[in-house]
């Protein structure tokens, strides 16, 4: 099960009635934040999310509306008594940018920076923290993050998050394989167990792999060709829709953004379950006005708003 | 005449119901901003102040609640089509801090940095901009900024602003000195005029110097001995009152802040006309509760709140 809150739905500049686009994922009590514009910490306070349990922050790109809230948020997390490291993921240049914008900031915890990752990143829930899996490629991952290069006026990456689902425990299979009941729990957790001179493996008690939850996040970008494959089958596809009307296509092309209908075409091609639009231009007062432009192309479209909450369950 | 808006009245962290301490002065249509925490630009939008006419930004110190809004505000000013330079004044280290926090920020105007100024800074209204007077110490200044070193957990300066008042134009004196009416306006502006073979000087038509408006701004600091002399006779003394109750004196001392009564003692010693308290701890929900603690010592005390507006007129 994955919970999420759209902390803000705006693009460009923070406004009194709309926070900047940022998404907070909550998985088994641990949090992943995507982007952090000026005021993201204020949105988190409004929505009572707490600060201490953020283990990972993903940055799409270095425009102010996606990063200027980072020094303040990281300071506030420091005030929440966190001492465990935080992982920050972002495009090429992340180290230099963080060094710059954090010049005045003392933090009582370490930051582990992953810049321009070209491989899938596996994470495990270890001692209640979401940690990078040391055994990348092998072993079981609780979560996998992938990135895609986007097309914006600054180097920019999109993200996909895959949350694994544990296979079912099958009592019949355990009995059939004569597995002693004492070690069922450990096998269910994925451990190999040597017990009374015999080796027992998890597949002696577990069923087939089960599909997890996939969420993808694309902002800011033009609709590049590789996106449909990258977001393929997502339970939720969060995508920028900076401009509502097709009449603003010229602006969208000039500023390397998308219109609602461009985003919904991607959702359709990517065969996702649901599309959530965000990152609305400050010129759009009520994005709901353009809802039909998106729904004509992709029916399961939600127009984002600050504070939108959602739970995605395993199928 | 000087107009001001208290954009925020909080300290430490930006809160949903209280912006961080920041003051916006408006003098003859030009603006001076003091401090810029995360969300200051949002407060400015709420209060419809506009962005383009900010000529000077004064920074007290480099703690996040006083500077993390700067990259965003400067970007937004850039979006307002400003091309004239902005002057930023602050303590030692300002250049390095700005270089760091603005690492990702492109601005379509120049920034002129004044770091750790040890002398009075004179400004003139030139072509409708508040500009540094090239003739420091000489010539007429429309505004003078002075700084004082404070006692905080980071290098910190306080500010005083003196807005000059033009002397009165005296028709009787002009007639007595046989000054031709054609050149009255130019003399009134402070020019020396050579006319029909004679030199005329402003003092041939003007009365005595008149007292201008003095505003002083102290945050964050312990109440150091030099403050009363620095703020002497201010029309308005804006001062931090991080803690309301005297019972929090220990905290105030430990964190290098002041209680309400410490601030009001300074106001009394400095013989100011009015005290405006700001920079309230996030632990104080309603600072009005502690109003009497301050008023017992200094009657003319105002408890600040976001959006407080005030006009100070020449006496």
UniProtKB/TrEMBL annotation, chains A, B:
InterPro entries the record matches: RibonucZ/Hydroxyglut_hydro, RNase_Z/BN
Keyword line: Endonuclease, Hydrolase, Metal-binding, Nuclease, tRNA processing, Zinc
Known cofactor(s): Zn(2+)
EC number: 3.1.26.11
Cofactor binding annotation: Binds 2 Zn(2+) ions.
Residues engaged in binding Zn(2+) 1: 61, 63, 152, 220
Active-site residues, as the UniProt record annotates them: 65
A matching Pfam family: Anti-Pycsar_Apyc1
Molecular function terms from GO: 3'-tRNA processing endoribonuclease activity; zinc ion binding
Domain of life: Bacteria
Reaction equation(s) it catalyzes: Endonucleolytic cleavage of RNA, removing extra 3' nucleotides from tRNA precursor, generating 3' termini of tRNAs. A 3'-hydroxy group is left at the tRNA terminus and a 5'-phosphoryl group is left at the trailer molecule
CDD domains: RNaseZ_ZiPD-like_MBL-fold
Gene3D superfamilies tied to this protein: Ribonuclease Z/Hydroxyacylglutathione hydrolase-like
Residues reported in the UniProt entry to bind Zn(2+) 2: 65-66, 220, 279
Enzyme category, top tier: hydrolase
Subunit structure of this chain's protein: Homodimer.
HAMAP family given in the database record: RNase_Z_BN
UniProt family annotation: Belongs to the RNase Z family.
Role according to the record: Zinc phosphodiesterase, which displays some tRNA 3'-processing endonuclease activity. Probably involved in tRNA maturation, by removing a 3'-trailer from precursor tRNA.
Name this polypeptide is given: Ribonuclease Z
Source organism of this protein record: Paratissierella segnis
């Amino acid at each position: 099960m994955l919970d999420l809150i759209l902390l803000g739905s705006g693009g460009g500049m923070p406004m009194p009635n709309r926070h900047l686009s940022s998404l907070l994922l909550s998985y088994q009590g641990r949090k992943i934040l995507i982007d952090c514009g000026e005021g993201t910490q204020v949105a988190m306070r409004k929505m009572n999310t707490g600060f201490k349990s953020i283990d990972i922050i993903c940055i799409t790109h270095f425009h102010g509306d996606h990063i200027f809230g980072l020094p303040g948020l990281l300071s506030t997390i420091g005030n929440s008594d966190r001492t465990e490291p935080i992982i920050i993921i972002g495009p090429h240049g992340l180290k230099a940018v963080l060094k710059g914008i954090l010049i005045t900031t003392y933090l009582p915890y370490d930051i582990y920076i992953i810049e321009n990752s070209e491989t899938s990143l596996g994470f495990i829930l270890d001692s209640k923290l979401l940690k990078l899996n040391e055994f990348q490629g092998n072993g079981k991952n609780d979560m996998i993050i992938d990135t895609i290069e986007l097309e914006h006026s600054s180097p920019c990456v999109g993200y996909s998050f895959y949350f694994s689902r544990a296979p079912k425990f099958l009592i019949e299979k355990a009995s059939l394989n004569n597995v002693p009941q004492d070690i069922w729990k450990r096998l269910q957790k994925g451990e190999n167990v040597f017990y009374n001179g015999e080796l027992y493996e998890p597949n002696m008690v577990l069923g087939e792999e089960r599909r997890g939850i996939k969420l993808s996040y694309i902002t800011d970008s033009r609709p590049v060709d590789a996106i449909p494959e990258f977001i393929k089958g997502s339970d939720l596809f969060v995508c920028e829709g900076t401009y509502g009307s097709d009449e603003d296509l010229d602006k969208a092309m000039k500023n390397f953004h998308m219109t609602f209908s461009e985003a919904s075409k991607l959702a359709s091609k990517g065969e996702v379950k649901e599309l959530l639009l965000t990152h609305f231009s400050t010129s759009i007062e009520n994005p709901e006005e353009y809802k039909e432009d998106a729904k004509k192309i992709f029916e399961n479209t939600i127009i984002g708003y600050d504070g939108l909450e959602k739970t995605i369950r395993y199928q």
